[in-house]
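ok trying this again, last paste got cut off
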Amino acid sequence: MRKSTPHFSLKHRLSDFAAVATDVLVDNSDGNVSGRRAIISYTFLASIVAAIVGGHYYTGVLLELGATETYIATMNMVITFCGFLQFLSPLLLEKIKKRKAILIASRLLYHILYVLVFALIPLLPIGQLYKIVGFFAVNVIVNIITSLTTSGMSIWHMQSIPLAKQSNYFAITNLGNTLLNVIVTFVTARYVDSMQTSGSSVLGMTPLTSAFIILRAVGLVFALLELFFLVRIKEYPYEIDKNESNNRGLRLLLSPIANKKFMLTISIQLAWWFVSGLIGSYFSVYLIDEINMSYTYLSLGGIISTPLIMVSTPLWAVIIKKIGWRNTYIATAIGYAVAYAGNAFVTKSSQYMYIVVLVICYIFSSTGILQSLVVYLNMPDYNRTAYLSFYSLCTTLTTLLGNFVGMVFMNLTESITINFLGIAMGNNQYMGIVQGILSVGVAVYAAIVGKIVSKN
């Protein structure tokens, strides 16, 4: 009898997506479907705000003000360092039975500073150096606020998402966030490029700074909508360790260390963050400053890749359930190794390679699901804020270590050019080859550690 083979038609992929969406947004067997809808609406709006007020043009504004590559890299390292404060957040949040009001207030303050105040800094009658310092100072404050509340926000939201629905939930949010980021980034990039081409100006600012201010005004509108849905999310009682002595001070903060299965599981993700953090902001600066890639072209890859995202994300959700997170992680790390190496071949005459790299990344959209899912796999039901904060501290440390190692590497190799496959490469390029090799190492590590965790 002839064996049936799996079909990968659009019809089947739409069927996969419909099943995933129904499980999260329609099925109300746990009574939390309205909360999940509010959470997803909030998440998508937050993604829109981030895409509008972030983007490559922020780096462009800093460069326009006279900031150097090293200064921007240092600023990013300091901001990453602020993430250490997330480790202390359980000391505050675990003592508060109802955290919703505090978390909403923190998000409101975030938007006031990062969206509104950032838009006002270029308009201040001060020198360019002071404006750069102003951006830096506000950015630090914003990241301190975020660090102290991110874990609490995530644990609050995860109350409405049972374990059986988490992979599907992360598939939907990662798909939606990616699509929104692609579309909004492309639209904003087109707007920024058109402002620069036409030489349009607002209040005597340069075209790039003018676009920066206007886009933040638009972002403020979406920020208000985001807060509307955040208020609608329900909050339930939080579980704590029954052993009271484990709920105090350092014992609370360091309690995850004793959970070997949890530590082994997250170590794979920490290796991933180290590798991804090596290049820091150097590659973005390289694309903008050295090969003069337009903001529109920077976002074009996302538009081209949109169909891939729509097909691959729900497909990966199904694959994870069929072959497990370990095997999926191995495949994803190898796929990203190819993408990292591809960065080495992005030059002025081969800017299309940037699109190729993005396409590979979007094919392996499993990375977003895995990054969100892995931390919860072996996390206990109690003191989850402490566990998530500890994990965030570890990711901050490994990312910061990656940034630092990358910065040292870039400084030591600043004047070193190598010839690889007939192409003269600067350090911004061959760093991609280094990352590719290390990403293969992450795949091997995931295979070994994943097997150990499975045995236990």
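PB: full thing came through this time. Residues 9 and 315 are 11 Å apart (CA to CA).
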